[in-house]
Design brief:
InterPro entries: Biofilm_reg_signaling, EAL_dom, EAL_sf, GGDEF_dom, Nucleotide_cyclase, PAC, PAS, PAS-assoc_C. It comes from Luteimonas terricola. This is EAL domain-containing protein. This protein has 30 helices and 32 strands. With 856 residues, it is of the alpha+beta class. The strands form six sheets. It has an eight-stranded mixed beta barrel with strand order 24-25-27-28-29-30-31-32, surrounded by four helices. The chain has a six-stranded antiparallel β-sheet with strand order 7-6-11-10-9-8. Strands 2-1-5-4-3 form a five-stranded antiparallel β-sheet. Helix 16 packs antiparallel against helix 17 and helix 24 packs parallel to helix 25.
Length: 856
């Protein structure tokens, strides 16, 4: 009498009790004379190997526990969702909590100040193979806080991605830093601390006082700290920022001491002299400075002599003037005369005003009259020098005695031509997109607003343009190729629009065209068609060519909006609808389109809350043996019953859920409910009923599907064979390596895997051959046409042949007539489902069918 071994248990962690039971059974089987001697020997060897493995596991666990609890800093093991899985002895002491109060709780119980998405940057760093470091405040059980520096690294724990976090108490270091800061504030020497890029880390009170700033005022960059000052060498020549001692110390890597630096404040016409010593600081093991500390001493009194101040005045392009109102004579310093003419200086205020443009000439005369009344002035004026070159000057004037009606008016005159040209360049840059040279978002908003606000404004049209498939190029070829594509796209837009409208890059791959269409109502459509024609030609990269088309939405004032925001919003809505419908097209905004989008948003909102509101339920369509009618299993079909929308079938909402990402949560609910029902049928004495569940592609890649399935099978004590997962053909060609790994893990659980609606989509036979698929489902799209439609007959024959050649199971969907059943039987299709047998049934009705004998 022969005996067979029991089937392999499901893959799950075994307890010590399970191990002992298995060893006992192996020992008993090894002594059973019913087995051949060779088999008993193998069983004995298996038992010994299991004992050795168990001892090794116990030994490893003891070493882990010893090491884990020996670490003097708090150490916690955290799951990917932020749940604390383990805490060492030092952690319990630091947080003054027993381990039982922490394990299983979210990490916020220890770090209450963490943001909701705190695990995202940690997991990103771990995925890059890096250690994530952050300073936070931990909380003890009594609510007191203490600062810590947390180092986090990743590892796998029982098949799950986890993070081990080591927290170093920073309390003593913070106390030392506080004492250090107090010392910096009480000394009378200025101290600056800068990063390796020149960014300001700290400036003490003395340093801020020297440069005339308040706490919080200095720019965070090194050159911005002296934004209002001109740096000078000891000889009075201008010092570039790169020659400042701190920058030299960073660049040269050694101390730069005792350097005399002049600071000339342009606005206050104030000169300071500082002695600066800069010392670079290195991090441990670094070969370049990490920071630089500069010590400043005010030595202005030692350097104040008139000759040097005259030199500074020249270098700062500042000249002096004095006007004798009684005689009309004008006195200019050499620098002031050079700024105005470079040749014969003007001898009167009128002749000086002649160098100015007419409007600024009038402004100067008004200001001089005001000074006569005791009021000073400061003006930026534009003019032409004696040689015809344009210039800008800043003129400051006040009465010589500070008394109204004074006979003499004095002031300064500074050449600001370079800075004004710089301001104009900055204005252009501030309005331009740096990549394409088009207007940027802010500039376009201003331009549209100005056209809408103009008196008697003509209608304005906005074209909202989004590039189709740009993300694919950017992801496949990289950001450099994406930037190149955007630049070429901008050139095509310029060529298409010409001078008939303004063009802006509004966002990543989004562009805006604004045009006035009062005398030409059809201009927006013509421009849109020209743009679509320009994008009909592919974009070349090396030897490859990519087709990147455009979707365009059009909105007009005033009917589609009388303000900038509304007009753009409606053009965006029209673009979105155009992209949703066809892509590579244009669509004008209409109120009906807005209503449709509002309804779609309301639909999405209802769908998003449907799971929480308990609005979903499952029905089960029997899968029967076509020859006998015996029920072999059932497919779980979701139904949505909404109070406002009524009962809805999956084809009314599944595609929407796919688009919004809600399908992952809905799919998780379906899996749980199907497993719960399978367990309920088993408890009713119906045995294990295999339930087929449709799984979205987003579920496969957007969540840990294998872990979820494993957890559900364990929770409801079901074998893997109780569950069949059906996927669309998309999984056959996209992300094949990741799909292969997920499918292999699911097969290891005993779960059956099938491709749903095979033949409708990609039918990628090469991938079908490589993936561990066990079955195909013949789409009702083809079953509906047999046996009368020869094309459908050919497809059914082909799919049946593929299933036979690959050794795959085959289930036909949508069987509604007896003729279809007989035809499929002749094709050797063993299993089917459809209205011929039953629609989706309530769980109790399916249970009744399972108890009933099959029809003959």
């Amino acid at each position: 009498m022969s005996r067979s071994l029991p089937p392999d248990p499901p893959l799950r962690p075994s307890s010590d009790g399970d191990g002992e039971r298995i060893l006992t059974e192996l020992d008993a089987a090894g002594r059973d004379p019913a087995f051949p001697a060779s088999m008993r020997g193998l069983l004995h060897q298996a038992a010994e190997a299991l004992r050795t493995a168990s001892a090794d596991v116990q030994d490893a666990q003891m070493r882990y526990q010893a090491l884990f609890h020996a670490v003097p800093d708090p150490v916690s093991v955290i799951a990917a969702d932020g749940t604390v899985l383990d805490l060492n002895t030092a952690g319990m002491a630091a947080y003054r909590r027993p381990r039982s109060e922490v394990i299983g709780q979210p990490i916020h119980v220890l770090n209450p100040d963490l943001p909701c998405d705190h695990m995202a940057p940690v997991l990103e760093a771990v995925d890059r193979g890096e250690t994530y470091v952050i300073e936070v405040s931990n909380m003890r059980v009594d609510g007191t806080r203490f600062p810590v520096e947390v180092h986090s690294a990743g590892f796998e724990h029982e098949g799950r991605r986890c993070v081990v976090a080591v927290a170093r108490d920073l309390s003593r270091r913070r106390e030392a830093e506080a004492r250090y800061r107090d010392l910096l504030e009480v000394i009378d020497k200025g101290i600056l601390i800068q990063d390796a890029d020149g960014s300001l880390v700290h400036a003490n009170t003395a340093a801020l006082r020297m440069i005339g700033a308040q706490q919080g005022e200095p720019s965070p960059h090194g050159d911005g700290l002296f934004e209002h000052w001109m740096l000078l060498h000891a000889d009075g020549s201008e010092m570039p920022m790169s020659a400042f001692p701190a920058m030299r110390a960073l660049h040269e890597g050694h101390q730069v001491g005792g350097t005399l630096v002049g600071l000339y404040h342009r606005a206050r016409r104030q000169l300071l002299w500082l002695s600066v010593t800069s010392i670079p600081h290195y991090a441990a093991g670094a070969d370049r400075p990490e920071q630089v500390l500069s010590l400043l001493s005010d030595v202005t009194e030692l350097k104040r002599d008139s000759a040097l101040f005259d030199r500074v005045q020249l270098l700062a392009s500042i000249g002096g003037w004095e006007w004798d109102r009684a005689s009309g004579k004008l006195y200019l310093t050499d620098e002031a005369a050079r700024i105005l003419s470079g040749a014969q200086p003007p001898a009167s205020m009128d002749s000086m005003a002649d160098y100015l443009l007419p409007a600024d000439r009038a402004r100067l005369r008004q200001a001089l009259d005001a000074v006569a009344g005791g009021t000073g002035f400061e003006l930026d004026l534009q003019g032409l020098r004696g040689d015809g070159r344009p210039f800008w000057v800043r003129v400051i004037g006040e009465s010589g005695t500070g008394v109204a009606g004074a006979a003499r008016i004095t002031g300064t005159l500074q050449d600001i031509t370079v800075s004004k040209h710089g301001e104009q360049s900055l204005r252009v840059l501030a309005r331009s997109d740096p990549l394409t040279g088009l207007l940027n978002r802010d500039a376009m908003l201003e331009e549209i607003a100005s056209r809408l606000d103009a008196a008697g404004a003509a209608p304005v049209a906005v074209l909202y343009i989004d590039l189709d498939r740009f993300k694919l190029v950017n992801d496949v070829l990289g950001h450099a190729a994406g930037d190149s594509l955007l630049s070429v796209a901008a050139d095509r837009l310029r060529a298409s629009v010409g001078d008939q409208g303004l063009i802006a890059r509004f966002g990543g791959d989004e562009f805006l065209v604004a045009c006035v269409c009062g005398d030409d109502p059809g201009r927006p459509e013509r421009l849109a068609d020209a743009i679509l024609d320009a994008f009909s030609v592919g974009f070349g990269f090396d030897k490859d060519e990519f087709v990147v088309t455009a979707s365009i939405g059009i909105a007009r004032s005033p009917q589609d909006g009388s303000d900038t925001q509304t007009l753009i919003q409606h053009a965006d809505a029209a673009m979105y609808e155009s992209k949703r419908r066809t892509r590579n097209g244009r669509l004008a905004y209409t109120p009906a389109l807005a209503q449709s989008q509002r309804e779609r948003l309301q639909f999405e909102t209802q769908l998003r809350h449907a799971t929480d509101n308990g609005e979903f339920h499952l029905v089960y369509q029997p899968q029967v043996e076509l020859a006998s009618g015996r029920v072999l299993g059932a497919e779980a079909l979701i139904r949505w019953n909404n109070e406002r929308l009524g009962e809805m079938r999956p084809d009314h909402f599944i595609a929407q859920a796919e688009g919004t990402g809600d399908i992952v949560r809905i799919g998780g609910w379906v899996l749980r409910e199907a497993c719960r029902q399978a367990a309920a049928w088993r408890e009713q004495g119906l045995g294990i009923v295999r339930v087929a569940v449709n799984v979205s592609y987003r579920q496969l890649l957007g969540s840990d599907l294998t872990a979820s399935v494993c957890s559900l099978l364990q929770e409801f004590d079901l074998p893997g064979a109780a569950l069949e997962l059906e996927f669309t053909e998309r999984v056959l060609i996209e992300d094949a390596p990741e799909t292969l790994g997920n499918f292999a893990a699911l097969r290891a659980l005993g779960v059956t895997l099938a491709i749903d609606d095979f033949g409708e989509g990609y039918s990628a036979l090469n991938y079908l051959r490589r993936l561990p698929i066990q079955g195909l489902k013949l789409s009702q799209l083809f079953v509906a046409g047999v046996p009368g439609n020869q094309s459908d007959v050919a497809v059914c024959q082909a799919v049946a042949g593929i299933a036979r050649s690959l050794g795959l199971g085959l289930v036909a969907e949508g069987i509604e007539t007896e003729e279809q059943r007989r035809f499929l039987l002749e094709l050797d299709v063993p299993v089917g489902q459809g209205f011929l047998f039953a629609p989706g049934l309530a769980p109790d009705e399916l249970a009744r069918r399972l108890r009933s004998p099959p029809p003959l």
